[in-house]
Amino acid sequence: MAESTTQNRRLITDNLEQLLSILPAPLRSQLQAHAQLDSLIEVVLDIGRQPEARFPEKAEFLTEQVVTRTDLDYCIQRVGHFSGDNRAGIERTLHRISAMRNRQGEIIGLTCRVGRAVYGTITMIQDLVESGKSILLLGRPGVGKTTALREIARVLADDLLKRVVIIDTSNEIAGDGDVPHPAIGRARRMQVARPELQHQVMIEAVENHMPEVIVIDEIGTELEALAARTIAERGVQLIGTAHGNQIENLMKNPTLSDLVGGIQSVTLGDDEARRRGSQKSVLERKAPPTFDVAVEMLERSRWVVHDEVSVTVDQLLRGRVPNPQIRTVNDAGKVAITHELPKLIETPEPTAQKSWRSSSQIPVVPLKEQIPVSPDSNMFQTLLDASMDRQDRYGNEIAWAGPNGEDLPLHIYPYGVSRSQLDQVIRTLNLPIILTKDIDNADVVLGLRSHVKHHSKLKQLAKSRQLPVHTIKASTIPQIARGLRRLLNMDEPGTPEVVDLRMFMGDESDDEMEALEEARLAVEQIVIPKGQPVELLPRSALVRKMQHELIEHYRLQSRSFGEEPNRRLRIYPA
């Protein structure tokens, strides 16, 4: 009978007695009396060595007697046939028995791994499974990839009533024998005679059995990766696993990189290389990824979800840090979704002499104390709030220093720059800056480049007072925001580009917010990721001006077309 327990709201079925029945009597009796039998992972039998039982936290010897040839033969006679990958099973169970052979082909060791059907393991990604997107599971051995794969197949077949076909190379998903294990539900299983034929069976499944979903375990060869792409291009949902802990592992693996779109070297022209600030030879994604979503299974209850693999790969190739979802589940079965802050951002040293200029990133709270950030929140505001509210070890507030060692807030003397726009940016971004009309009280001068260039008296005045002069090209919201961030040494290449639409608004009407949101979505979802131009809806001249400034913030070009009242903006890719 199947042994079932409820743990963390998960039903576990392991048929453990059937695995113990293949072991010699002394070993079987030792395990049956063991206090941690329910958490047994595997039993290792090597000829001439003591038999070993492995548990999550430890491994221990079962007897002092070494394993003999007779013990191995006893086990081999009670399991199924060993296939080309030296794996066998027990009929109608999920247990896996793997063999080690000597040079003559004789079996000299067995690894008897416990197979468990765990119901409820995919709560964290239930929405992704039901979305119809192709999902790739990554993670170290033993983290539960195959268990999750089995549960996904059951949910798709039984709950969503889809036609699911499992490509079961080692009979590990649906168990040994001709009748599949009940854990896969109504899903069908195609067995693979030899591991090297897996890619052929994958194509055969699509051509002969009209599946809506194909489930594959351990994509490991170039032919299998090619077959997976062929299946995805035919409109079939793919659920699979691959060797590697993270997406970066696949990108560096020439055999499997096609699963995430493939990597190719591209030679840029002089202008494009200068615009990007990169070398002329760069790496770029070659094609759309085979899988839409990638899940890195760090732990059994903590998974990292890249819901757009193409975006993640592009960011990694450009040296940026992706911001994936972190999904966790607690003992009550409740799923929490957060976003991890980029790890390139360092924590500043807690000293009163620390200056913004001496740190190349925005100071934030330590990674272990990070604040969960939702996709719609203002990350810049979160980082700034976390950095400004700091205390030393005695509970005293730390006075952060400005770019030249001044205590914040920084006093700025504006020259030729719109004071109302400066106030708007400072207030919206909550920057530690105060505008002053008295140059004697200023820490720095911020001026319009064309004005400062022809004003020698201002230069002499600033020089006599040892005031640095910073200039911006135009008195626009994007230029002002960039100039102020540069003054506080926040405008670094690794800093996430965060747009607060309130910076570009006038009286904060609903029409203005709607128009700016339309422009922001067009840039972030179409122009930048897909490289396609986009035309916006017709707007008034004042609103179009706000949209122009917002688009300039992204360092993109925009033009107005048409006649009033149908005049509208067109946004061009970089």
TrEMBL record:
<dbReference type="GO" id="GO:0003676">
    <property type="term" value="F:nucleic acid binding"/>
</dbReference>
<dbReference type="InterPro" id="IPR036867">
    <property type="entry name" value="R3H_dom_sf"/>
</dbReference>
<dbReference type="InterPro" id="IPR045735">
    <property type="entry name" value="Spore_III_AA_AAA+_ATPase"/>
</dbReference>
<keyword id="KW-0547">Nucleotide-binding</keyword>
<dbReference type="Pfam" id="PF25516">
    <property type="entry name" value="PTPase"/>
</dbReference>
<dbReference type="InterPro" id="IPR027417">
    <property type="entry name" value="P-loop_NTPase"/>
</dbReference>
<protein>
    <recommendedName>
        <fullName>R3H domain-containing protein</fullName>
    </recommendedName>
</protein>
<dbReference type="InterPro" id="IPR058670">
    <property type="entry name" value="PTPase_dom"/>
</dbReference>
<dbReference type="InterPro" id="IPR034081">
    <property type="entry name" value="R3H_AAA"/>
</dbReference>
<dbReference type="Pfam" id="PF01424">
    <property type="entry name" value="R3H"/>
</dbReference>
<dbReference type="Pfam" id="PF19568">
    <property type="entry name" value="Spore_III_AA"/>
</dbReference>
<dbReference type="InterPro" id="IPR001374">
    <property type="entry name" value="R3H_dom"/>
</dbReference>
<keyword id="KW-0067">ATP-binding</keyword>
<feature type="domain" description="R3H">
    <location>
        <begin position="510"/>
        <end position="574"/>
    </location>
</feature>
<dbReference type="InterPro" id="IPR003593">
    <property type="entry name" value="AAA+_ATPase"/>
</dbReference>
<dbReference type="GO" id="GO:0005524">
    <property type="term" value="F:ATP binding"/>
</dbReference>
